[in-house]
């Protein structure tokens, strides 16, 4: 995927569209070895963990008002993982990587967030 990411970012720069993007990496400085095109891009290091991805998402999506903590995001994740097999069964799908299952997971995540994230 590094090659495809480099092409996408390079094309965006050539077209001067300035679309926002975030780059996640599990190891610090590895991106410089594989993609010099991204030099100067802030890379969010998640340490190869789900908790790390949530931590870095919190750094990217800073907003005014209530923002879920990493612990709250982990709680939502656990609920989704617990209910994933049932969600797949109801959708008649073997994989979570399709539009119907994604939509159902978004609805479940929203309901879990309503319960776990206080106003």
> What percentage of amino acids are in beta strands?
5-15%
Order of helices and strands: HEHEHHH
Give the number of DSSP strands: 2
As a percent range, the share of helical residues equals 55-70%
From the spread of the alpha carbons, the general shape counts as globular
Biggest pleated-sheet summary = 2 strands, parallel
Q: For the terminal residues, how far apart are their CA atoms? A: 38 Å
Point out poorly predicted stretches: none
Q: Helix tally?
A: 5
How would you sum up this structure, described in words?
By secondary structure, this protein is mainly alpha-helical. It is built from 5 helices and 2 strands, in the order H-E-H-E-H-H-H. The protein has helices at 2-15, 30-34, 50-60, 70-91, 99-116; strands spanning 23-25, 43-45. It has a two-stranded parallel ribbon with strand order 1-2. Helix 3 packs across helix 4 and helix 4 (70-91) packs antiparallel against helix 5 (99-116). The chain starts with a helix and ends with a helix.
What would you say about this model in short?
The protein is 59% helix and 5% strand. The chain has 119 residues and is mainly α.
List keywords for this structure.
two-stranded parallel sheet, mainly alpha
List the helices and strands and how they pair.
Blueprint: H1 2-15, E1 23-25, H2 30-34, E2 43-45, H3 50-60, H4 70-91, H5 99-116
Parallel strand pairs: 1-2
